[in-house]
Amino acid sequence: MIEHFAEKIDPALNRQSGKVFYSGRTAFSRPADLYLIGLNPGGDPVRQATETIGAETARVLLQLPDRWSAYSDESWRNKRPGTHQMQPRVLHMLRQLGRDPRETPASNLIFMRSRREANLGADVNVLVDQCWPFHEAVIASLNPKVIVCFGQTVGSLLNRKLKANERPIARFVETNSRGWATKAYRAGSQIVIVATHPSIADWTNPAADPTPLIQEMLDRSKGEKP
Asked: Whose C-alpha in 29, 81, 92, 183 is 20 to 30 A from the C-alpha of 174?
């Protein structure tokens, strides 16, 4: 099944610095109730020019173990795998949910790498449209009940694509002085959770941890009729 998803990647993107799969064959080969989506790969597209979408996809399909996760198994910024910035926060969330990162499908809404969100350019919707056939196929085939978005930008873009209801069905507000909110929206048969971004919010801190809301939405989805 993972080859089917790879075929949905626009060949015109293959030479650009970036990445599609944040977990491997096992995660993308069977139905999943949870799908993780970031905005786009970080880093430096000049310094990482050889880390192209095509090369990274081939590495996942042909070289990496079937059970693999970028969050637990990759070294980011020369740090020990699973320890840099948002990695331990995502792993904390999955551990609390009883999920294995190597069995949880994960990607980015936009595959092209940029140093900052602002570097993506003015019309982000065009980039989303280029990458959307992949996500459309994943959502249709794996049928995730809950999609967790890392940050408000990707959440807004995905809600627009999935025609989510404008009013949230549930929310979690951080119990700290910042008070940022994570919100859940109904989008057809899916629930989209627009979470705080784990590169900024420390999900390992109970005051900022959206995991209980994610668990609540997973539990709610189990009780719904197909």
From this structure: 81
Residue among 145, 222, 151 nearest 189 (CA):
145
CB 219 within 8 A of CB 203: no
User: Residues in the chain, how many?
Assistant: 226
Q: How far apart are CA 128 and CA 110, in angstroms?
A: 6
Q: How large is the average pLDDT for residues 210-222? A: 95
User: Residue type for 226, please?
Assistant: P
Reported as half-sphere exposure (CB side, CA atoms, 13 A), residue 20 has a value of 34
Task: Report the DSSP pairing between strands 146-150 and 34-38.
Answer: parallel
Contact between 185 and 196 (Cβ < 8 Å): no
Residue 63, domain CATH? 3.40.470.10
Q: What are phi and psi of 143, to 5 degrees?
A: 50, 55
Residues 199, 201, 217, 2, Cα dihedral to 10°: 10
Average pLDDT over residues 89-110: 97
Percentage of residues of the chain with pLDDT beyond 90: 85
Give the model confidence (pLDDT) of 11-31 as tens digits.
999 999 999 999 999 999 999
Rounded CA separation 5/162 (Å)? 18
The secondary structure of 36-80 as a DSSP string is: EEESS--S-TTTTTTSBHHHHHHHHHHTS-SS-BHHHH--STTPP
Instruction: Output the CA torsion sign for 22, 27, 31, 35.
Output: negative
Count of structural domains, the chain: 1
Domain residues for the domain of 210 are: 2-222
